[in-house]
Known about the structure:
Layout: H1 2-14, H2 17-24, H3 30-51, H4 59-85, H5 90-97, H6 100-112, H7 118-140, H8 149-169, H9 178-199, H10 209-246, H11 249-261, H12 267-284
Helix pairs in contact: 1-10, 2-5, 2-10, 3-4, 3-9, 3-10, 4-8, 4-9, 5-11, 6-8, 7-12
Amino acid sequence: MLAFLASVLFVLIWSTGFIVARAVMPHGSPELVVAVRLALVTLLLSAAALHARQVLPRGRRLALHLAAGALLHGVYLTLSWWAVDHGMPAGIMSLLGALQPLMVAVACVIFLSERLPARAWSGLGVAIIGVGCVLAPAIERSGAGSIGVLPAIAALLSIMGMAAGTLIQRGAIAGDGIAISGAVQNAGGAMVAMTAALFVGEAQWDNSPILWMGLGWSVIVLSGAGLSLLIWLVRHQGPTRMSMLLLLVPPLAVVEAWLIFGERLGAVQLAGFALALGGVLLGRSRMKRREAEVVEPA
């Protein structure tokens, strides 16, 4: 019963990642909000690491943690939140995030010479077709519900950044303490977001209650409770079951975006959504995992 309740709570929390982004974007520039969020998460995890007496990595390990965080948190969150701010629907962005394990698998083939089963390649192909069905109608039309080419590119690049960061995290640094690893990696991500805020962003911050509530939710609920539940579920139910739970997140995000913001998907997009998730499920069913992949929510 406890595992079931934890699973339900995790899916509910994880699905709100881009819903929060969509809510706070009118009140703060995405680069600045992400920078503040990652800085606060760094402080939170640093306190946890200090309490657990986890040692700060040094030398090459520290550099790898910073690089992983720069990609996994900085590039991913900054680009994905920018895409949402420029018209990418929250539900579609959540769907794109579900493609990350397949991208990691392909990267392992390219850079680590690992073998990918035929079923995983088939799943990747089906998922790509599904994503095309979701994105193409929104890019082609104009007005409400349309997506610009640049936000679509930024969204896809953000997933590639997350996949690259995950690949680094699967290497020699995987055995370091969770709290100290998270603190250093969030610091690396904060550097990227701060740089973007300084040189690209508009530095908008209106101090509205919605902005502060969204920031608090992102730090405490998503990064704190959400990641804790994810780690607990992986350890008690295994990465395979956790992988199945993650597939429930994009459909729930679509429903939430429809109820809160009125975001709608057409018939072709809904079919593409189902195809994309089916492709991810097909690909994941045969992919071997050396360890659970823990990634930051949106």
